[in-house]
Amino acid sequence: AKSAGGNRFETADAEADARAITRHGLTNALPAALERGEFFIEYQPLVHLGDGSVHGAEALVRWCHPQHGVLGPDRFIPLAEHTGLIVPLGRWVLEESVRQARFWQERHSDGGPLRINVNLSPMQLHHPGLVSDTVDVLERAGLEPGALCLEVTESALIGADDDLLKPLRQLAEMGVDIALDDFGTGYSNLANLRRLPVSVLKLDRSFTQSMQQHPADTVDVKIVEGIVSLAHSLSLAVTVEGVETGAQAAQLRELGCDTAQGWYYARPGAPDRIHSLLLADAV
Ligand code: C2E
Ligand code: CA
Ligand code: CA
Ligand code: CA
Predict the structure, then answer these.
(1) DSSP state for residue 269 in the 8-state scheme
(2) Model pTM greater than 0.95?
(3) What is the DSSP letter of 114?
(4) What gap in Å lies between CA 85 and CA 77, rounded to an integer?
(5) CA distance 236 to 229
């Protein structure tokens, strides 16, 4: 507000305006940012709950904006999805992280296959080039399809018809893993899982948060138990995210979850971090 005693509605309007201006500005700046190489990827390890060894890493994109500093994906992925820029941006993330995964593998050939997880937005799912782009990226990097896991949110697949599932099926037939991200937050029918070409359920962070928190409230524990037993009976692996404490890790291991990710193990970081974790595993 301009006047000293300006009313709060003006202030709220001004804030809303400022946010809209920023959104507008960020949206307009996206294409040039991609061309100028302002995006970068942080990697967060996925570990085996059994022994804590590294199973793979999830690629998480960031934008190093010249004025606003480093922006997290929640600030710009929705904008990129809105304008369609998510398609070339997503392709860049895939290419860069697959190349990085191949690089790790070459240096740690003894450490077994290292997996790379890449998030796919709903618009990428609808894009006709998804399968051919993915095949192309894998071939050029020399990475076997089995080392790639594409993460799709549960909500993106709710009510998905066969046309939408076809490219995912093709990728799954090639050996690419498909993970259902944020699992448990949507309304998907568990029986529906049989229809989906997924091989991994990635339990939403909210389940992790309720572990060891309300000892009296065992509902989430029971739900996780049920999900794990169903998943395993369908030969699906269960990954948990957002593990922040050793107690959560212990409980989720006890409940039979397979792999985990979270600050307790490592924050998302530069590729070197994964490299040193793999070195540590090897000794
Ligand atoms: P997501 O796929 O569910 O990724 C997990 C998010 O949880 C990441 O946030 C990660 O940094 C955060 N996280 C990891 N461990 C912990 C923990 O122990 N505690 C807590 N509180 N949080 C943890 P981030 O990096 O801000 O990414 C947010 C979302 O942006 C991702 O959620 C994903 O949906 C989206 N995203 C990130 N990269 C890409 C991308 O390349 N393409 C697309 N389409 N979406 C992306
Ligand atoms: Ca994810
Ligand atoms: Ca998730
Ligand atoms: Ca999420």
Answers:
(1) B
(2) no
(3) P
(4) 9
(5) 10
Inform me whether the pLDDT recorded for 278 exceeds 90: no
Residues near ligand 1 (Cβ within 6 A): 44, 60-61, 72-74, 77, 90, 93, 119, 121, 151, 181-182, 241-244, 261-263, 268
Pick the atom of ligand 1 nearest to 121's CA. Answer: 44
Ligand 3 centroid – CA 205 distance (Å): 7
* 182 C-alpha to ligand 4 centroid (Å): 6
13: left (phi over 0), alpha (psi -120 to 50) or beta: alpha
Place of tokens 């593998």: 105
- The neighbourhood of ligand 2, an ion, using CB within 5 A, equals 119, 151, 181
Summarize pLDDT for 182-231 with one digit per residue, the tens. Answer: 998 876 667 778 889 999 999 999 999 988 765 656 788 988 999 999 99
pLDDT of residue 111 exceeding 60: no
Q: What would the 3-class secondary structure string for 125-179 be? A: HHCCCHHHHHHHHHHHHCCCHHHEEEEEEHHHHCCCCHHHHHHHHHHHHHCCEEE
Please give all residues whose CB falls under 5 A of ion ligand 3, grouped by chain where several chains appear.
181-182
117 CA to centre of ligand 1 in angstroms: 11
**ipTM of the modeled complex:** 0.97
Distance CA 176, CA 123 (A): 19
CA 120 to centroid of ligand 2, rounded, Å: 8
Please name the residues in contact with 99: beta carbons below 8 A apart, sequence gap of 6 or more.
141
pLDDT given for residue 229 in this prediction: 94
